[in-house]
From TrEMBL:
This is CoA-binding protein. InterPro entries: CoA-bd, NAD(P)-bd_dom_sf. It comes from Campylobacter peloridis. Residues 1-90 form the CoA-binding domain. Pfam families: CoA_binding_2 (PF13380). It comes from the Bacteria.
Amino acid sequence: MKNIAIIGLSPNQDKPSHFVSKYLQDLGYKIYPIYPKEDFILNEKVYRNLKEIPFEIDTAIMFRKASYANELFEELLLKNVKNFWMQLGIINDEIMQKCKKYGINCVQDCCIKIELQKKV
């Protein structure tokens, strides 16, 4: 896991998407923010959707409502994303099943920052 798209990365430093992404950056991961506004967040170019990112993405982390994963799924396939992470409080069993069917590792209702901190 090296290149991570952060779907719903808020410019607000108090939001979990922001401080989790900053943590990932500090660990040396390359993040690609996806947000409807802003040009740069955490000194990274902001993209409007996953398809817009011109680089290989191995992991996508979502900080949006669970139902948004249904819209996002086709983009995960198009970008050949290997890992899809739905953050704490985000549960979408339908997408979990689709990911399993297509060989995408999927996690839901779990914080990547907390999980990584357990390994340190």
